[in-house]
Write a structure and sequence with these properties.
Helix 7 links the parallel strand 9 and strand 10. This protein has a five-stranded parallel beta sheet. A four-stranded mixed beta sheet has the order 3-4-6-5, sandwiched between helices. It has a two-stranded antiparallel ribbon with strand order 1-2. The chain is built from nine helices and eleven strands. The N terminus is likely disordered. 46% of the residues are buried. The protein is α/β, with parallel strands linked by helices.
Length: 243
């Protein structure tokens, strides 16, 4: 299947000849990073069409988030049939599709991803791979939750060396506060929906992180690894992108 495109009379792009998307070709100029495709709720055909349109317009790489394995297989088949503009790689744990090659890191320092438990890995990997996609060197510190706080303390020096720390945790969400008390860098907390009944699908961790007594902790939405990584990348590029 070949995915076709055309320009509308008012120069707003319509994907595949249908008005289901108007890709933002100028976003990188405004925000330092190109448009990202939120894959949940979109069909494989729509994802492939939007990605192809963005790359044909000059965006060197495209990220699609929240894509399940079945949909990713369909996207890959469409992408291959469309002529293979660039590589298309699926990261199953993170549920990400990357069109094009990952860039070399060009940030001011390191983005550290601290993940409380193995059950939080999908969100942590979404954050880690998104940060890499945005041009950051990433250090991963997984299974360092406070239930075995020695595991976190074992990597405290490495966390202190990072420019930004993303703390990913479900249950009671205590990891972010502890990390916030250990490092001078900004800490971006990501509550996850991991936990038993009273975790309320991540609301307990969200409220705990919002009420952290540690200074320098900010919080994104539940399971929003992408949002945390985007903010971390912006912080990590403050010096390198000054005009």
């Amino acid at each position: 299947m070949t995915v076709a495109f055309h320009q509308s009379e008012n120069s707003e792009s319509l994907c595949g000849g249908a008005a289901f998307a108007r890709p933002d070709y100028d976003r990188a100029m405004r925000q330092g990073a190109g448009e990202v495709i939120y894959g949940e709720g979109k069909t494989a055909e729509q994802i492939a069409a939007i990605a192809s349109s963005l790359m044909e317009a000059g965006q060197p790489r495209v990220l699609a988030t929240r894509v399940d394995a079945k949909k990713a297989d369909a996207v890959a088949a469409l992408w291959g049939d469309g002529g293979g503009i660039a590589p298309c790689v699926y990261y199953e744990t993170a549920r990400l599709v990357v069109f094009g090659d990952m860039p070399a890191p060009d940030g001011d320092g390191v983005v550290a991803i601290a993940c409380a438990g193995t059950s939080d890995l999908p969100v942590a990997e979404e954050a880690a791979l998104t940060a890499e996609f945005l041009g950051n060197e990433v250090w991963r510190f997984y299974d360092v939750g406070v239930a075995g706080i020695h595991r976190l303390l074992d990597v405290a020096d490495e966390l202190r060396a990072a420019r930004v720390v993303v703390a990913v945790a479900g249950m009671e969400g205590a990891l972010a506060s502890v990390v916030g008390g250990l490092v001078a860098a900004p800490v971006i907390a990501v509550p996850t929906s991991v936990g038993y009944g009273a975790s309320f699908g991540g609301v307990t961790a969200l409220l705990a992180m919002l009420n952290s007594c540690a200074s320098g902790v900010s919080v994104v939405n539940i399971d929003n690894g992408f949002g945390a990584a985007f903010q971390a990348s912006a912080i990590n590029h403050l010096n390198s992108r000054q005009g």
